[in-house]
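Handout for the seminar on molecular recognition.
Each group receives one record of this type.
Step one: identify the two inputs.
Step two: read the structure output and locate the region that could contact 3-methyl-2-oxobutanoic acid.
Step three: write two sentences on what you found, then compare them with the reference statements printed after the record.
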Amino acid sequence: MYLSSLGRSCVSSLTRSARPSHLFLQGLRVPAVLQQSQTQARWSSHSPMGSPPTEPRKKVTIGKLRAMHRKGEPITMITAHDFPSAHVADAADIDVILVGDSLAMVALGMEDTSEIVVEEMLLHCRSVARATKSAFVVGDLPMGSYEAGPTQALQTAIRFVKEGRMQGVKLEGGKEMVPAIQKITTAGIPVLGHVGLTPQRQNMLGGFRVQGKTAASAMEVLDDALAVQKAGCFAVVLEAVPAEVAAIVTQKLSIPTIGIGAGNGCSGQVLVQIDMTGNSPPGRHLPKFVKKYGDVWSESLRAIKTYREEVKTRQYPAPEHTYPIAKEELEGFAEAVKGI
Ligand code: KIV
């Protein structure tokens, strides 16, 4: 059993002077040395959180997002696909964390987003929710989990809240999604719309194509955005739309627009974390709108290569990475094994 899973609060509540030589935890007899299990838990490489680097900020709510929009303050959104990526996004004071179905491709290596199923999304949603203390968390309804009708959409959305621990859901589509959005929002679940390029429909769109490039297509983007707004969405993602079109759509709406490949005139922006942190090998194709703010791949590669080298040359682990044993105990052990 790993130390971190022992009854932490039970052990740490004992005072130093009152410590017995052994404790009984979950039926296990544990030596006194493990009374420091609070520290031990921190040492364990399985302890997830560590200490927060700063004071936790106030929880971001729908009301807070509305207030930001009213004041013209840009809304920041980023994807997170697991516990560590959510942890760092939350620590960076991001307003909204999206468990996007992009995880199918960038975190699970699937061909496209149509492959991922609800249960897989929920597993990732739960891990993101556990790490997120302040940001508003939204889960992406995967293809096939909401298009059959409003009842299916509501049932899936409820699972995202109850099982995935999400605070809102995102779904792709415009006018045709109005009954589903109405059904979900009437049940009290915030919905983030997604119009323009909708990757779940890439087969119909003929691939990942920029939308709204003609007057008629731009009008369709606006119509879709207005429809999902009227249906009750609290905000809408505009994906891969010319910046000028996105700016006009933003002006025509009363809810915030969250742009991705839609220019600077939107009310906020979203990017896929793995793309923007540079956490993928050089040469991987990235869409034009992605700005690489980091080079996590190179840093990980450097660290892992150095570790490999140090293991091969026995530089690692050094004495400071090992646990001490009292001289007499070691001598006793050495004596005891002599006959073996
Ligand atoms: O799946 C996703 O990550 C998304 C964002 C890129 C908007 O839908």
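Reference statements: Residues 24 and 96 are 43 Å apart (CA to CA). DSSP finds 14 helices and ten strands in the chain.
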